[in-house]
Amino acid sequence: MGNREDLLAGARQVILERGVAKATARDIAAAAGVSLAAIGYHFGSKDELVSAALTESLGTGIGDAMEAVVDETAALPLLEGFAALFDRMPEIFAANREALVASFENSVMVWRDPAASRTLAAAMQEAHLGIVEVLRSARPELDAADVDAIAKLEFVLVQSLGLLWIISPDSLPSGQELARAAAAIARDGGRTEA
């Protein structure tokens, strides 16, 4: 591994052991076995390194698990596949608990750091595009606008349900409930009040 990869691994290790707030640049550099200056050289700041490490960790953990469910359910009708995905999210969140908690902690911390906020925003866009790729592959019958809209809905639901799961795991709606709501909204069509 090179210094960049070592820093990402060191950051993940320190974050999972101590949390984002207590992860110092010095601790991360020590865990990575590199100089403190390497953080600035490769990432610009500790906050940007932390965002990159968490994005990579969650992309691998949560993103790969979601992709597997989407692939497994590709033969089902779209709404059933959607329900199956969100029925599995509590299990996926549980398998990635520490990284999920650290990610939310990091989101609040970077709010005041414009550079780290831009890094996180770019990572969120990358996550959305990752969902688009998975859906495009699993559901080739969908047009590009539908794939994009579904990817945005799934991304928003995963983010909000992840936070809800951290706070109160038993209060998550089931995938069936979410699918029923989506179907009811679709049945309503374009009706508007006169």
Automatic annotation (TrEMBL):
Cross-referenced InterPro entries, in alphabetical order?
Homeodomain-like_sf, HTH-type_TetR-like_transc_reg, HTH_TetR, Tet_transcr_reg_TetR-rel_C_sf
Q: Please tell me the species this chain comes from.
A: Microbacterium jejuense
What keywords sit in the KW lines?
A: DNA-binding
Q: Using the record's annotation, list all stretches that form the HTH tetR-type domain.
A: 1-61
Q: What is this protein called?
A: TetR family transcriptional regulator
Q: Which residues bind DNA?
A: 24-43
* A Pfam entry, by short name: TetR_N
